[in-house]
Design a protein that fits this description.
By secondary structure, the chain is of the alpha/beta class. It has two domains: about 290 residues, Ribonuclease Z/Hydroxyacylglutathione hydrolase-like (Metallo-beta-lactamase, Chain A); about 110 residues, no CATH class. The chain has 13 helices and 13 strands. The strands form two sheets. Strands 6-5-4-3-2-1-13 form a seven-stranded mixed β-sheet. It has a six-stranded mixed β-sheet with strand order 7-8-9-10-11-12. A hairpin with a 2-residue loop joins β8 and β9. It is globular, with a radius of gyration of 23 Å. About 10% of the residues have low confidence. Bound molecules: zinc ion. Zinc ion binds next to α2.
Length: about 450
């Protein structure tokens, strides 16, 4: 009889704004299995001694030099940048690659090529839709790149302006990370070891993770839910709008365009503005530039939401316990799972990885209310929650109700679960460690 898992240990690494979780199962025959879920960061905390290299080294040590499964929930930088390799073979992604994962799990939207005669993951008519979805993801990277190029351009936005930093943050998170994507595609050896999953697919990992059932709650396929398709359509509209926006040139135009600057002869420094523009014009110039930033932020935020909604949602069922890892899935991705017959699986979840670093629309209240193990500190078998986040990087600031992590959610997490937050780590600590008895 196959060995049974007796303990699950979750290491939530300090990645600043990013995710990296090592889920380790200890078995009753003294063996162990290791699953790495995401490895990326868009911004590390300033005073932290932790760094991506140290995290990679610790993962290698903790798993004894061999990973069983790598999960890359979606393609954002804050979830995959750590998988990037380097020419000298010393990148964090080289370390992960050397651990020879047996399987790499990604959302179906990442499948590099629709196989010959493939009809899509769930139906007969989605091969074309699949290609469209894939193209949309590629276009999203191009738009994100155009936004960042715009910020980098000489005479671009003044760094001191309020939206420039947020714009850069969201823009850079959506830029394609070619090295990491390629590494994920090949690190498990044969192509069939890459699994591109979707809601309800049969993920048979019995040979690799004995006696652990892994349920896939998301993302839905296009056929299962038109929510993603709707997003894709509206993001197609955005590409059009992008080209028509006065100040934001599409990728091809960025390098050559001379006319897309709102005030081409104006350097964007206050002194220059003050000396060259008539007094009555100065406030107009500044407001138009800010309006351009706001429009660009609206566009990249929409792209950001689409990509988040391609997140793989995995529920690990081991022994008597259930562990939920939803990546950055937002409401549109969750909605399908919550109205499906898999929703009841969520009722007795024991550990919840807080979705999207604690943002306001990634922990649907209807799901949160399902968790029966929520309760006061003395509740037996109380729900555990784990959140990797860094305040002040994403969403609104200064009390805006869109800040990440959202304070009202954090308050509920603290009141009704045992919350492990990477923000609470000391500068010398590499990770939060959570141990769960599976018996
Ligand atoms: Zn994220």
């Amino acid at each position: 009889m196959a060995a049974k898992p007796v303990t699950a240990t979750i290491r939530a690494y300090q990645m600043g704004f990013g995710d990296c979780f090592l889920l380790s199962f200890a078995y009753d025959d003294a063996s162990a299995r290791h699953v790495l879920i995401d490895f990326g960061s868009t911004a590390m905390p300033d005073k932290s001694k932790a760094n991506v290299k140290a995290v990679a080294a610790d993962i290698a040590q903790q798993c004894g030099g061999a990973l069983d499964i790598v999960v890359a929930t979606h393609r954002h930088k804050d979830h995959i940048s750590g998988f990037a390799t380097r020419k000298d073979g010393k990148g964090p992604g080289d370390v992960i690659r050397s651990l020879n994962p047996k399987r790499v799990i990604q959302p179906w939207t990442e499948a590099p090529n629709a196989p010959e005669g493939w009809t899509g993951p769930d139906g007969t008519s989605s091969a074309h839709a699949f290609a469209m979805q894939r193209d949309s993801l590629e276009n999203m990277h191009a738009v994100a790149q155009a936004v960042v190029d715009r910020l980098d351009r000489k005479g671009g936005f003044d760094r001191r302006w309020p939206l420039a930093e947020r714009l850069r943050f969201v823009g850079e998170d959506n830029i394609k990370n070619v090295s990491a994507v390629n590494n994920l595609m090949t690190m498990a050896g044969a192509p069939e070891n890459n699994m591109y999953v979707y809601h309800g697919c049969d993920l048979d990992l019995a040979a690799i993770l004995p006696n652990v059932k892994v349920h896939v709650l998301g993302p839905p396929t296009l056929k299962q839910s038109d929510s993603i398709e709707t997003y894709a359509k509206s993001s197609e509209d955005y590409w059009l709008k992008t080209r028509h926006l006065a100040g934001l040139a599409a990728t091809n135009d960025v390098a050559t365009s001379k006319t897309s600057m709102l005030f081409p002869n104006l350097k964007s420094t206050d002194t220059f503005r003050q000396t060259r523009l008539p007094t009555e014009m100065r406030w107009v110039a500044e407001r138009i530039d800010i309006a351009e930033q706001e429009q660009m932020l609206g566009i990249v935020t929409a792209l950001d939401n689409v990509m988040n909604n391609t997140s793989v949602i995995l529920l690990f069922e081991a022994g008597s316990k259930k562990l939920l890892f939803p990546g950055d899935a937002q409401l549109e991705n969750w909605r399908y799972a919550l109205q499906s017959d898999m929703a009841d699986l969520l009722n007795d979840v024991d550990l919840y990885k807080v979705g999207h670093h604690g943002s306001l629309n990634a922990t649907p209240k209807s799901m949160w209310k399902r968790f029966e193990k929520r309760g006061k500190p003395d509740t037996p078998d109380r729900l555990k929650t784990v959140m990797s986040t860094m305040a002040g990087k994403h969403g609104g600031k200064n009390g805006a109700p869109t800040e990440v992590p959202r304070i009202t959610l954090v308050n509920d997490l603290k009141a009704e679960s045992s919350l492990f937050n990477t923000e609470d780590l000391q500068p010398t600590q590499l990770c939060q460690v959570i141990t769960i008895d599976l018996r």
